[in-house]
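Quick one:
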Amino acid sequence: MQGFKDYLTEAALKAEDYEAAIVMGWHEVCGMQLNPESAGISESQYEVLKKNPQVIETGRRIATSLLKGKHAKKGAKAEVYGRISNPVTAYWKSFGAGNTTPKTDVLIGKQRFSVKVGMAQLMSGGKSESTATFNVAMKQAKGLEKKPQAKKVSAILENFVTASLAPGQLRAIIKSGKNEVVNAGEAAHKECMKELGTLFEQSKEFKIAFAREAMSGFGKFGEKSDSAAEFMLVSSHDGSDVQVHSVYDDAYCESIANKMKLQARFKTSSRKLQGKKTGEYNFWSVVSLIVDAADKVKKEEYTPEEVESINEFFSLGKIATSIKSAVASAFNKMKSILSRGIDSVIQFLGIDIEVDTKDKIDFTK
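Output:
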């Protein structure tokens, strides 16, 4: 079992850091000279990795596994691909979806990998991205678009909230029930959870296609685009368990589809002007797909206040020691939560309530 400090380190690191470590590891195991800039590794990221040798070791182990498993050719160019912006397809754009973030995280030669290390999320798309994903999957489930249930889901997605601004934290506004836009969005989220979930149950073909698109981005970028991932590269945080799965593998896609937990909700970010927080929050509707195949730790129900305390406690770990009193204050708020057992807290660590929602994800078969 990992030590408590290891969990804190993992919470502070980003997915991109592991992707960069894999690229660094690939250069090392192939005996290639690394040029961080041409490999898509920023200077700040490189500095972070130098301070986290355990992550570099993870990257080295994953790279070694890729080489031994012949998942990529020795000596092929490796790069972190998240910085690249390739155009989306005309079909995808027809739904107003213009986000160009690649599904490919690491590109080695011609092999396109979506990397999932430890905690991650399969999908978190706003109205246009979710609508586009929905329609790509519908095209592959023949005749489904004419069914009443499909039409019902399509209409619900139309009621999703796009970029809006709240005068304060959204939680209090939702609780008050006085904001018409927020109320309508919350109603749409509840309907989406119910009706899209029902559609998943009614059509295995649609559910698998939805999962495949969320993983690959084939409909978003086109199957031949370097931004569309062909393989899921799944690893533990220490690189001791590495698996590679093709997104063309129907059995694998079905296993992921069956593990998916649907979530429709608001996503928020604090608004800043000239680098300073205004107290206002941007908010919009998203559809998230979460996979938790482990189920090793019983999930606990946390109040919104406890959620905030958890995030505050673990984020304060990255702040200078000059504000120890703030850390102590956050820790005091954490006492009742910690008393439930450290496993419950660790199970919860992936959640960032203000910006994103994460949960333990298992992309192994």
